[in-house]
Design brief:
The protein is mainly alpha-helical. It is 56% helix and 10% strand. The protein is built from 10 helices and 6 strands. The strands form 3 sheets. Strands 1-2 form a two-stranded parallel sheet. The protein has a two-stranded parallel ribbon with strand order 3-6. Strands 4-5 form a two-stranded antiparallel sheet. The longest helix has 23 residues. The radius of gyration is 23 Å and the shape is elongated.
């Protein structure tokens, strides 16, 4: 091999090494810079939303934070609607997301994640499935992920857990063959057959209990929550524990 060719391949190898090293180590940025990037999504919100999914810019940090907002739109949407103090936890989540991708975040110390038993995760999740009223045919109309309607009488609310389960359930019901929607129809028919009450208010409350208990005890419901958790666990402020072995 000629000397120029050797020099070319040496430089090429060096360039590939530097690129690969950069990909492995990520970029270095401060938590304050991340906070400023997150804030850009709240400066000019779209109508009816508290934030924008994407802001202009092609630098690596902007693209990464845009990706976070797109992939976790429902989670952020719920947080921003249900908590007045969501910005700092959200910034920490974005920092954790970046750190998981190899970024070095100065002035950022991840807080210990709160242990959350899987049974407690399900206790929160079932409340997003909310029998609301009967229609003219006597069928039970059920709202799913209707904001925090199911939590109006729930003590000790955990907004981040609510937001995560909202995201997991809403994404599942968007599927062409949704397990949750199929199960809701089945339970609606079961509630009718059981003739829970002639009084409509009592009927709905008993139907709510029926839906929540049966979803809570359904292995498929637990499985879909844990599958969604595995995807987002790296940035959530809680850690699901006591997971059943598959």
């Amino acid at each position: 091999m000629s000397r120029p060719a050797k020099i070319f391949f040496s430089l090429l190898s060096l360039g590939l090494f530097l690129i690969n090293s950069q990909m492995l180590s990520g970029w270095e940025v401060s938590r304050e810079t991340v906070a400023s990037e997150v804030e850009k999504h709240f400066l000019n919100p779209k109508p009816n939303f508290a934030f924008t999914e994407e802001v202009a810019g092609q630098d690596d940090l902007t693209r990464q934070v845009n990706y976070f907002f797109k992939e976790n739109f429902l989670y952020i949407d719920y947080l921003s609607r249900e908590s007045k103090e969501y910005k700092e936890p959200l910034i920490d989540s974005v920092c954790a997301f970046l750190a998981d991708r190899g970024w070095k975040i100065s002035n950022f110390s991840p807080k210990p994640r709160t242990p959350l038993p899987v049974d407690d995760l399900k206790i929160v999740a079932v409340r997003h499935i909310f029998p609301l009223r009967t229609n003219a045919e006597g069928k039970i109309a059920t709202l799913i992920c209707a904001s925090a309607l199911g939590f109006k009488d729930f003590p000790g609310r955990q907004i981040e857990v609510e937001a995560f389960t909202f995201d997991a359930i809403f994404n599942e019901i968007k599927k062409e063959e949704s397990y949750i929607l199929t199960r809701v129809r089945e339970l609606g028919e079961l509630a009718r057959k059981m003739k829970l009450s002639d009084n409509n208010d009592d009927l709905i409350k008993r139907a709510q209990g029926l839906f929540w208990i049966l979803f809570y005890s359904d292995p498929e419901f637990e499985k879909l929550l844990l599958k969604a958790y595995e995807v987002k666990a790296r940035f959530l402020p809680f850690e699901v524990v006591g997971k059943k072995q598959s």
